Amino acid sequence: MFGFSRAQVIAFAVLVLAVIAAPFLLYPIVAMQVMCYGLFAMGTNLLMGSVGLLSLGQAAYFGLGGYVAGYLVQSLGMTPEIGIVAGGLAGAALGAVFGWLAIRRQDIYFAMITLALAQIVYFGAVQLTGFTGGENGIQGIPRSALFGLISLKNDRVIYWLVAVVFLAGVLFVHRVVHSPFGQVVKAVRDNEPRMTSLGYQPASYKRVIFILAALLAGVAGGLKATVMGIETLSDVGAATSGLVVLMVLLGGIGTIFGPIVGALVVVAMQYYLAPFGAWVIVIQGAIFVVCVLVFRRGIVGELAYRLKSPL
Amino acid sequence: MVMILGKPLPLLFGQLLLGLINGSFYAMLSMGLAIIFGLLRIINFAHGAMFMVGAFVTWALFTYLHIDYWGALICAPVIVGLFGVALERTVIRRIYKLDILYGLLLTFGLAQILQGLATNYFGVSGVSYEAPHGLGGVVNLGFMYLPIYRGFVVFAALVICGATWALIECTRLGALLRAATENPALVQAFGVNVPRLLALTFGGGVALAALAGVLAAPLYSVNPGMGSDLIDTVFAVVVIGGMGSIGGAILTGFALGIIEGFTDVFYPPGSAVVVFVVMAIVLLARPAGLFGKTA
Q1: Read out DSSP for B239-273?
Q2: What is residue A2's predicted lDDT score, i.e. its pLDDT?
Q3: Helices B246-266 and B148-170: crossing angle, nearest 10°?
Q4: Mind telling me how many Å the CA of B3 is from chain A's nearest CA?
Q5: Which chain B residues have a beta carbon less than 8 Å from that of A103?
Q6: A240 touches chain B (CB under 8 A)
Q7: Which residue numbers of B have CB closer than 8 Å to A's CBs?
Q8: By the 8 A CB rule, do A118 and A57 touch?
Q9: Is the pLDDT of residue B295 over 50?
Q10: In-domain check, residue B292
C-alpha cells in the first residue's frame, strides 16, 4: 500500500495512533515540538540517508523558515498557513543556492561547507535586526486564525494543524524515497561513478535532495515558530544543526521512522534534563559517541534489522 | 594625520595587527587539522574544544599548581597531547574502517562533551588569565602603539608554524609521516609502527591546538565557547586552502585573518562573514581549494 512494506504499514498506523493519543498523554506543546523536529529530522535524513551527505548547517533553513513565518504573521499580519508555506519556500530557495555551492565538494568538505554557509545566515540573523529582532528574536508571534477562519489560540486546535502537516510530511518523504527518482538517488550514493557512466548527472540529483531537505526544514521552522510564538537565534545556530543530526543518527540513518523516534528521544531528553543545565550537552555528546562506536544502526534501524524489514 | 583610503594610518595598522592575531590562530588550528586529516583521514571536530581545554589547563596550572605562563607553554600542550593520544588509543582508533563521516560525528560528540563539562565547572562566562610578567604593557612604535603581548602572539605563532613545517618537511619523522600519508600499508611493511604513528599524530595535532589555547588565554576570556566560535571559521579556512599542504594551511590562515581585519575597517558588519564569503567565491572558482590537489 502506497509503497509501504507490511512492517511500515503497521509502523505508520502506530504513528497515527500515537499522534492522535499524544495530546491526551503529553503536554500538547511538547508533542508539537516533537513533530516539528521530526519533520526537520526527516528532511535532514533525506540528505544523510538517501545520498549519504552529512550537512552540519541545516539550522540555517530551519531558522530562516521560522523567521519568515514569524515576520509575515507578526509584522505583515498574514495568516499562519501563508507564513508556514512561505517559510518552507524561503528554506528551499536558500537551499537551492547553498546546495549549488556545497555539492561541488564531497564528504567532509561538504559537511564543513554547509557548516560555514550556515554561519553566514547566523551572523546575518544577528545583524538584520529589522527582520529578525537580533538578540531578542521575534517575540509574541500571534496565532492568527487559519485561513482567516479557524482560531488557533487553543493548543488542542493548533495541534491538529501540526499533526496534519507532520503526517503529510512522513508520506511525502516516503514517496520521494520510494519513487524512481529515489532509486536513482540511492544508486548515486552507492556508486556515483557508475551512475555517471550510465548517463545520469549525480550533482543534479543531490541538488534536488538538498532543496527538499531545506524545504522540510523551512516548513518545520515555520511551524515551530507558529506554535511557540517565538523565533530566536538559537534556532538558526550551529547547536540546532548538531541536534538534528543527532536525532537522525540516534533514530537510524536512512529509515523512514527513525528521525521521528530520534526527535522524540532528544526533545524528551531536553525537556526532562533541563534542570541539569549543561549536563544535557554532555549527555548529547556521549550519545553521539556511543551511537558512532556501537549503535550505528540507531533505534529504528536496529529494530528493522532484527525484523529483517525496512522501517 | 596620514590617511589611506580615508582611514587614519594607526587604525589600519591596529587592524592589521588584529588580523595577524586572528590569522595566527586560524593558521595554527588549520595546520593541526590538516596534519591529523592527512594521516588519520579524520576531520577533528573536537579541535576547537582542544584549543579551549588548552586555555583552561593554562589557567588551572597557574591557579592550582602555581605554574606560570612559560611553564604552561610547555606543560599544557603535553597534557592535552597525552589526552589526545589516550583518546586515539581508546576511541578514535575504532572507527578508521568506517565511512569518513563517522569520524566527524564522533569528534563532534567529543567536542560537545568537553564543552559541556567546561560549562558545568566554569560557567558560560569562564575565567580570566593575566598576561605574563614582562609581556604586559604597550610599546610605541612611532606609527602605532603595540601591546607587547599581542606582538608576542604573532611572533610565537610564526615560530610555531615554521617549526612544524620544518618538522614535517625536513626531518626523518616528517618524512615517515608523509610516507604514511601516501601509503600506510607500504610504510608498515617496511617495519614502521603505523598505529603508534597515528596515535602520535593525533596527539601532536591536538597539542598544537592546546598551544594555541595557551597563547589565547591572556588575550581573550577563557570560556567554554572559545573553541567552538573559532572552529567554524577554521573549517572555512581549511576549505579555502585545501588540506593538501601544511604551508598552504599556514598561508591561508594568516591571509584570511588579515582580510577579516581590514573588512572590519571598511565594512564592519561584514567582518563576521567575510571568511565564509571568500570560501563561497573560492568554491566557485577553484572547487578543490587554493592548495588542494583533487576535487
Answers
A1: HHH-SS-HHHHHHHHHHHHHHHHHHHHH-GGGGGT
A2: 64
A3: 150
A4: 29
A5: none
A6: no
A7: 37, 43, 91, 94-95, 98-106, 108-117, 119-120, 228, 232-233, 235-236, 238-239, 269, 272-273, 275-277, 279-280, 283-284, 287, 295
A8: yes
A9: no
A10: no
Q: Give the CATH number for residue A216.
A: 1.10.3470
* Chain A closest-CA separation from residue B80 CA (Å): 19
Q: What is the CATH number of the domain that holds B80?
A: 1.10.3470
Which residue in chain A is spatially nearest to B268 when comparing CA positions? A127
pLDDT in tens, B84-96: 999 999 998 888 8
Instruction: Give me the number of domains chain B comprises.
Output: 1
Contact by Cβ (8 Å): B197, B183: no
Q: How far is residue A200 CA from its own chain's centroid?
A: 28
pLDDT (tens digit per residue) in A204-254 = 999 999 999 999 999 999 999 999 988 999 899 888 998 999 999 999 998
* Range B15-42 average pLDDT: 88
Whether A276 is in a domain gets the answer yes
Indicate yes or no: CB of B283 within 8 angstroms of CB of A104: yes
Candidates A48, A53, A56, A282: best to mutate against B (most CBs of B within 10 A) is A282
Could you tell me if residue B169 is inside a domain?
yes
Query: What confidence tens digit (pLDDT) does each residue in B196-212 have?
Result: 888 998 999 999 999 99
Split at pLDDT 50, 70, 90, the class of B1 is: low
Best A123, A128, A289, A290 member to test B by mutation, with max B CBs in 10 Å, is A289
Whole-number pLDDT of residue A130: 83
The answer to whether residue B294 sits within a structural domain is no
Residue A197, judged by CB atoms within 10 A of its CB (0-12, 13-18, 19+), counts as exposed
Q: Which amino acid is at A251?
A: G
User: Average pLDDT, stretch B1-16?
Assistant: 75
pLDDT confidence tier of residue B293, bands split at 50, 70 and 90? low
For residue B245, give every residue at least 6 positions away whose Cβ sits within 8 Å of its Cβ, in sequence order, or none: B34, B291
Could you count the other beta carbons within 10 Å of the beta carbon of residue A2? Answer: 10
- Has residue A1 been placed in a domain? no
**Domains held by chain A: number:** 1
Whether residue B91 and residue A126 make contact (CB cut-off 8 A), yes or no, is no
Residue B112's domain spans which residues? 3-285
What interface predicted TM-score (ipTM) does this complex get? 0.83
Report, as an integer, the average pLDDT of B126-152.
79
